[in-house]
Amino acid sequence: MSTNNHVPHTPLDREWIAQRIPHQFDMCLLDAVRHWSPEAIECEALLEGLGTHPLRAVDGGVGAVNAVEYAAQAMAVHGALVTGTNDAPKAGYLASVRGVNLHVDTIAASDAPLRVCAERLSGDDRNVLYAFRVDGARGAVADGRAAVVLDAGEGHV
């Protein structure tokens, strides 16, 4: 997945992101949008407060499988950017993930910052297929593909 040919944009911060995704407070996992184009997005997650992370396991760790949630939030932000909306993106949901590779067991503080990339492979105004990749300072965390169904709240599913 390449993010080198993205048109540069002013980085967008956590507050901007939180206004456009349904996840609020600690569940807004992304801290910035670094680059985006109509085809792809690259976000950053600083991983501050892993001890109180809302997705931590009983043992206090954050499983690498949660990289899918980071990627899903990047996809939601991408949808808001592509549609040019200043409001929350269209209602939608993660319909499936496929070919997910977890390269580590746990997301650790030493992974900070996470680089969360999603590339739109195909889709229309109702369904979108993305490839995603999450990397940390220690290397690859996870990658795979995700299908997103849009307008789920409007009876189009």
Q: How much strand? A: 35-45%
Structure classification: mainly beta
Please bin the fraction of helical residues. Answer: 10-25%
Return the domain count: 1
Protein model, in words:
This protein has a single domain, classed as Thiol Ester Dehydrase, Chain A (Roll), CATH 3.10.129.10. Helices cover 14% and strands 38% of the residues. The protein is built from 2 helices and 9 strands, in the order βαβββαβββββ. A 7-stranded antiparallel β-sheet has the order 1-2-3-7-8-9-5. The longest helix has 17 residues. The radius of gyration is 15 Å and the shape is globular. The N terminus is likely disordered.
Please sum up the structure shown.
It comes from Hydrogenophaga intermedia. This is Putative beta-hydroxyacyl-acyl carrier protein (ACP)-dehydratase. 14% of the residues lie in helices and 38% in strands.
